[in-house]
Write a structure and sequence with these properties.
The complex is a heterodimer of chains A (276) and B (351).
Chain A: H1 2-12, H2 15-43, H3 53-60, H4 62-96, H5 101-108, H6 110-113, H7 116-127, H8 132-135, H9 141-162, H10 166-175, H11 180-188, H12 193-209, H13 212-216, H14 222-232, H15 234-275
Chain B: E1 4-13, E2 16-26, E3 31-35, H1 42-50, E4 57-62, E5 65-66, E6 77-80, H2 92-102, H3 107-120, H4 136-149, E7 154-158, H5 166-183, E8 186-191, H6 194-200, E9 203-208, E10 211-216, H7 218-223, H8 228-233, E11 238-246, E12 249-252, E13 255-258, E14 269-274, E15 280-283, E16 293-302, E17 306-313, E18 318-324, E19 336-340, E20 347-350
Parallel strand pairs in B: 3-8, 3-9, 6-7, 7-8
Antiparallel strand pairs in B: 1-2, 1-4, 4-5, 9-10, 11-12, 11-14, 12-13, 14-20, 15-19, 16-17, 16-19, 17-18
Classes of the chains: A mainly alpha (276), B alpha+beta (351).
Bound molecules: adenosine-5'-triphosphate and magnesium ion (MG).
């Protein structure tokens, strides 16, 4: 018996790594391939050879800063507003009307299946005659993007809440004296860290990549700027998309490290603050 | 110190009447268990007390004050749940401290109290473990400590032991009782395990269909059940159809048996209830005296200290008798026997 299993172990050990390594290599190629290709096209100036002109142009370009900053602000506002709306809603759904979940899930997917152009037409109809200071500002995009992000955020939050026993945790917290607000901020949110991060990332990706709506409503966001640049200069567009990709990731990592600190240390850190 | 009462509480879910005019009072420092079959409304009763369910009518009173308008987070009750309910993102100590932090107690006091409670539930040194690093029994101990930490006036436990294995269950239930007595907290304990209820309670309430059938001390409940349901639900019971003759005797066929029948009018149809261990069985020569039950041994099983002898009476009813196994050796199947019961050991209820 001992021998057989010993044999099995020694024979089995070297085998899976080959398969695993192959899979990892394939995965890395699949994920990094497009990035590497984009990188090369961003530095390839055919006859002139390889150079980083596109990047230095971007860094020194004043024209970029406006759209990028705007998109960033819109993204953050969208994510914040989305969570402010969706977190309590999905929480309530899980706690009080779990039977309605499939219906809400179906409804939540509508913004995804309705083409953006239809959405824009609908919005223009709705907001006809509204004051210019309201619909003329690019931040008018925020509520629209909140709707666009709904399917992703709902799924992220829904999956998160299904992974914890919302009902028992809530009742435990209520029984210990927590207000509804404290239940959400001190118990539900810290246990949904992963899905909140995932949802934020999806919202950022949606906003930083959304072209149709912004273009139809004539707002100059980052993706609009990107296409404009791309029409004039291929290398610049490639460099910009790489940078925006890195930008999203950087932001995610930042959120992650912030989230980690808030998530794990919170309860003890809060103690002295509450005590004072 | 707190007295908790449920007064005429009704709670329905659609057509299901989960609580049907439930009345119950728990005295200060007392541990009362609610015992009953699945679906009888135990959890609903407890959740109504905790404020997680709003009764359709009736009141929950704490020291005479109506709690109906008080939300769950203001009710000052510690609760332990059947499901594991520790906050996964907090350590054992942080879980225990949660209620105190919400009450804005100073950090030093909070920490001291958490340590105190960890020691009280036997988990000193485990303060920094996260729930997933604790066993089920340890998690429930922490949950108990968390429920007691903020010194609530009432402790509510909904089958806190049912997810644990048998050995831990027995150990922890004794510990819950010890702690409850030590703290002197008014406690409502819900369970469907009769042994659990009988072993740790001051009084046990047996529920059926949303109503309280009987509320009494464990011994009283066991020895003198007042309804057939209670008798059948708690322990093993023998039932014989009888008719009441007067306040002290009933008739089973020709046999006249002594018992306290004052609750029923003469001539009423009743059921005579007797525990297996109160019956004495003797091998019979000749015919049975008319004050004991005649019958024939049907089966005999040896259980160590006791032997269980099944007797079929001459009228065809089954009597299960537990005897010291030494005395039962001769009672092999087929033996004619007489079965005797003392008047104080038999109870009559309406049929
Ligand atoms: N939220 C609810 N919606 C509908 N019916 C419910 C709900 N909660 C309880 N019930 C019903 O009310 C009755 C009493 O339920 P309760 O949970 O109080 O029983 P229980 O005595 O605790 O049972 P168990 O031993 O199985 O836990 C049951 O018939 C149950 O189906
Ligand atoms: Mg229950």
């Amino acid at each position: 018996m001992g021998q057989v299993s010993g044999d099995g172990a020694t024979r089995a050990r070297p085998r899976p790594p080959i398969g695993k390594v192959l899979w990892i290599v394939a995965g890395v190629l699949f994920l990094l391939g497009p990035l590497v290709a984009t990188f090369f096209s961003s530095i390839n100036y055919n006859q002139l050879g390889y150079r980083f002109t596109a990047y230095s142009n971007i860094v020194s370009s004043r024209a970029l800063r406006g759209p990028l900053w705007l998109s960033f602000q819109i993204a953050v506002l969208t994510a914040a507003l989305s969570f402010a709306l969706m977190l309590p809603t999905v929480f309530w759904l899980h706690l009080k009307v779990p039977k309605a979940r499939p219906i809400i899930e179906t409804i939540s997917i509508l913004p995804y299946v309705i083409p953006p152009i239809v959405l824009v037409v609908g919005i223009s109809q709705l907001t006809r005659g509204w004051p210019e200071w309201l619909i003329g500002k690019p931040f008018f995009l925020v509520p629209i993007y909140v709707v666009t992000c709904l399917p992703f955020l709902f799924r992220a939050l829904d999956a998160g809440m299904r992974s914890i026993d919302v009902m028992t945790l809530t009742e435990a917290a209520r029984g210990l004296g927590a207000t509804w607000r404290q239940v959400i901020t001190k118990v539900i949110m810290p246990n949904l860290r992963t899905s909140i991060l995932g949802g934020t990332f999806l919202a950022l990706a949606v906003v930083l990549g959304e072209f149709t709506i912004a273009s139809l409503l004539l707002f100059k966001t980052f993706p609009i700027y990107l296409t404009e640049v791309g029409q004039n200069e291929a290398q610049g567009a490639a460099a910009l998309s790489l940078l925006s990709f890195g930008f999203s990731w950087g932001f995610l990592l930042l959120l992650n490290s912030v989230g980690k600190r808030v998530g794990s240390g919170a309860s003890l850190d809060i103690a002295p603050r509450v005590g004072r | 110190m707190a007295t908790l009462s449920l007064v005429d509480v009704v709670k329905t879910y659609g057509v299901v009447r989960a609580l049907d005019h439930l009345n119950l009072t728990i005295e200060s420092g007392e541990l009362v268990s609610l015992l009953g079959p699945s679906g009888c409304g135990k959890t609903t009763a407890l959740r109504s007390v905790a404020g997680f369910e709003r009764p359709d009518s009736g009141q929950v009173l704490l020291n005479g004050k109506d709690l109906t308008p008080t939300p769950a987070n203001k009710r000052d009750m510690g609760m332990v749940f059947q499901a594991y309910s520790l906050f996964p993102n907090m350590t054992a100590a942080q879980n225990i401290a949660f209620g105190l932090k919400l009450r804005k107690r100073p950090g030093s006091e909070t920490r001291k109290r958490a340590d105190e409670l960890l020691t009280l539930v036997g988990l000193q040194g485990r303060a920094d473990r996260y729930p997933h690093q604790l066993s089920g029994g340890q998690q429930q101990r922490v949950a108990l400590a968390r429920a007691l930490a903020f010194e609530p006036s009432v402790l509510l436990l909904d089958e806190p032991l049912s997810a644990l294995d048998a050995q831990v269950r027995v150990q922890l239930r004794d510990e819950i009782r010890r702690l409850q007595k030590e703290v002197g907290i008014t406690t409502l304990f819900v369970t469907h395990d009769q042994e659990e209820a009988l072993s740790i309670s001051d009084r046990v309430g047996v529920m059926n269909n949303g109503q309280l059938e009987q509320l009494a001390s464990p011994a009283q409940l066991y020895r003198h059940p007042t309804t057939e349901f209670v008798a059948g639900f708690v322990g093993t019971i023998n039932r014989l159809p009888v008719s009441v003759r007067d306040a002290t005797t009933v008739a089973y066929g020709d046999v006249v048996l002594g018992c306290n029948a004052s609750a029923l009018p003469a001539g009423a149809a009743g059921l005579l209830l007797m525990r297996p261990e109160v019956l004495s069985v003797r091998a019979l020569e000749g015919s049975a005296p008319h004050t004991s039950l005649g019958g024939t041994v049907r089966a005999h099983s040896f259980l160590g200290p006791v032997a269980r002898v099944e007797v079929i009476t001459t009228s065809g009813d089954l009597l299960i008798c537990d005897l010291p196994s030494r005395d039962a050796d001769a009672l092999v199947p087929g033996t004619s026997v007489s079965v005797h019961v003392a008047a104080t050991d038999a109870t009559v209820v309406a049929r």
